[in-house]
Write a structure and sequence with these properties.
By secondary structure, the chain is α/β, with parallel strands linked by helices. The protein contains ten helices and seven strands. Helix 6 packs parallel to helix 7 and helix 8 runs parallel beside helix 9. The chain binds S-adenosylmethionine. S-adenosylmethionine binds next to helix 6, strand 2 and helix 8.
């Protein structure tokens, strides 16, 4: 998907954005005092007195322990897939923080590997449907985890920037596939029959697309490929674990826990 317009001045007001996107406290189990602390810190961030030309170099000032853990988790996986040939697929992109990270990590660990494509699948409109196997948590609802209109165009601009900060930026290595992934995964693989998957990260949170995409990529994995999961064994998101149980089986693989994260996990294909 190509950015139509690099001008991102016309974004909706912060208030409108907050109204459109769901309260994601369920995902992180944040208490009221944690949410208040974060809201107050957001004010501190929004009033940052650092000059424009230095602010991006100083984002470490604002990254919380939890968000740093998320970066370290992705790094832990990326280091392991450097010797594995194939692409990275992220199932459930939302605002795209991991897509940006994969681009930077490729630039750090394998700057000349232009074969390492990154493909992100998302509706960019939140959950298109939910299934009885997804349980009854408050967040399990059609439209949950939606983003702002045309957000994928803004994300394309951000990704282009990250690609340009690393070698071989003339070859576009990231693709965003918009739409219901239960449909788009099959279309993508039939248009790209050469695809080998070195790393697939599952963060749809729900049963149907996780099952459909796991089934679709199963024959594209090689020894050493990694399948990462955001919510295995998570009571609010049972669908992700059920999909794994049905497609691969829980007893037939080693589900690894990362020291960086209480909820994320991964399987290395042996
Ligand atoms: C929890 S968010 C992903 C968060 C993201 N990986 C991150 O680290 O910030 C879940 C995403 O899955 C997407 N999603 C859920 N079901 C989908 C489907 N059937 N097809 C495409 N995207 C879907 C939602 O639109 C949402 O953006």
């Amino acid at each position: 998907m190509k950015a139509k317009n690099a001008n991102v001045e016309c974004r909706p007001s912060r208030e409108k954005i907050n109204r459109r996107t769901p309260d994601i406290k369920a995902k992180w189990n944040a208490s009221k005092s944690e949410r208040d602390l974060r809201a107050s810190f957001y004010k501190t961030f929004s009033q940052c007195p650092i000059p424009e030309n230095e602010v991006l170099q100083n984002l470490g000032l604002f990254i919380s322990r939890q968000n740093l853990s998320q970066i370290l988790f992705i790094n832990e996986i990326y280091e392991q897939i450097v010797p594995v040939h194939g692409v990275i697929m992220e199932f459930g992109v939302r605002w795209g923080r991991n897509i940006a990270l994969y681009n930077s990590l490729r630039g750090i660990y394998e700057p000349f590997n232009h074969n390492r494509k990154v493909i992100g699948f998302d509706t960019f409109e939140g959950f298109p449907t939910v299934h009885a196997k997804d349980g009854a948590s408050e967040i399990i609802d059609v439209g949950s985890y939606g983003v702002t209109p045309d957000y994928e165009q803004y994300l394309s601009v951000v990704i282009d920037y990250h690609e340009k900060e690393s070698p071989i930026s003339n070859i576009k290595k990231t693709e965003l596939v918009k739409g219901d992934a239960t449909v788009t995964i099959e279309r993508y693989l039939s248009n790209n029959p050469e695809t080998i998957v070195a790393f697939a990260y599952f963060d749809f949170d729900i049963y149907e697309p996780t099952k459909a995409c796991l089934s679709a990529i199963k024959s594209r994995l090689t020894k050493g490929s990694i399948i990462g999961f955001d919510e295995l064994n998570h009571h609010d998101y049972p669908g992700e674990t059920l999909a794994l149980k049905e497609v691969i089986g829980i007893g037939s693989c080693r589900i690894r826990h990362s020291r960086y994260s209480p909820t994320q996990s991964y399987i290395v294909i042996e």
